[in-house]
Design goal:
47% of the residues lie in helices and 11% in strands. With 304 residues, it is an alpha/beta fold. It has one domain: Phosphoenolpyruvate-binding domains (TIM Barrel, Alpha-Beta Barrel). An eight-stranded parallel β-sheet has the order 1-8-7-6-5-4-3-2.
């Protein structure tokens, strides 16, 4: 049954692996998973981790990414995804869902959900999408309190606390660098630099901040889409592709639905669909059948 109904790797080991990856000298690639099945695919293909985006959780609920989701909604989806994968899961915890004490509780809930790490950001609550204009950041001292509260609540010292700063597009890159240093001093293990424009800004941040760094390669945003190899050569430790799988799936779903609406049949779409046999392969369908057979394949003893 190991690895069948749930991942074989315990949450504690996933956190150890996440930390080891951040110091391995190889960039850790975390595509976003909008559901557990996508996380299964991410692991099969060979990525180093799985990311759960707050923007994606919001979008799945039919809501914009403006701080409307709750801790229970986000942690619930994170738990579902972490359950199926042996990879570490990094989750977007927005601003911690409230005041510093809320951020502390958020960490405990995410630990209990089997998550390997989370990131907290320095935006004003309610937040905005990091690649849109009109954002506001809290004073650095307030974010430091947010982080210290999160650190104090952590029971597993290997749970990775990532601090995201949105200050580059508001106060400038130098201010964002100073914030990153303060956040690292407050206990952040990883720094997420949001909405840097191109390689030069990523290089400047790397040169100034000794803490492990995470890059966000989201589409249609403010950052140039740098390859993982380029980010690794700059010295970044991790990269997320937060919304890529949802964008791919929604484009395909919309295209297909429009064709079904117009033509009244999906016959012309079959070559663009995942086959039933491939879905069953991802779900390890045969192993469930074998398990079911093994459980019921027994003989009653003479006295039973």
């Amino acid at each position: 049954m190991s690895g069948l109904l749930a991942a074989a790797t315990p949450a504690a080991d996933k956190r150890v692996n996440f930390r080891a990856g951040l110091t391995s000298g190889r960039i850790q690639r975390f595509p976003g998973a909008f559901n557990p099945l996508v996380a299964t695919l991410i692991q099969e293909i060979g990525f180093e981790g799985v990311y759960v985006s707050g923007a994606v959780v919001s979008a799945e609920l039919g809501l914009p990414d403006i701080g409307l989701t709750t801790l229970s909604e986000v942690s619930g989806r994170g738990q579902q995804i972490a359950r199926v994968t042996d990879l570490p899961v990094l989750i977007d915890a927005d601003t911690g869902f409230g005041e510093p004490m809320n951020a502390a509780r958020t960490v405990t809930v995410l630990e209990d959900a089997g998550i390997a790490g989370c990131h907290l950001e320095d935006q004003v609550n309610p937040k905005r999408c990091g690649h849109l204009d009109g954002k506001s950041v809290v004073p650095a001292a307030e974010m430091v309190r947010r982080l210290r509260a999160a650190v104090s609540a952590r029971r597993d010292p290997n749970f990775v606390l990532c601090a995201r700063t949105d200050a580059a597009g508001i106060e400038g890159i130098d201010a964002a660098i100073e914030r990153a240093k303060a956040y690292a001093d407050a206990g952040a293990d990883l720094i997420f630099t949001e909405a840097l424009s191109g390689a030069a800004e990523f290089e400047k941040f790397r040169a100034a901040v000794p803490t492990p760094l995470l890059a966000n390669m989201t589409e249609f945003g403010k950052s140039e889409l740098l390859s993982a190899a380029t980010l690794e050569s700059i010295g970044y430790n991790a990269v997320i592709y937060p919304v890529s799988t949802l964008r791919l799936a929604m484009w395909a779903a919309e295209t297909g639905l429009r064709e079904i609406y117009d033509r009244g049949t999906q016959e012309g779409l079959l070559d663009r669909m995942q086959h039933r046999s491939r879905l069953y392969e991802l779900l390890a369908y045969e192993r469930y059948s074998e398990f079911d057979s093994d459980i019921f394949d027994f003989t009653l003893g003479r006295n039973q």
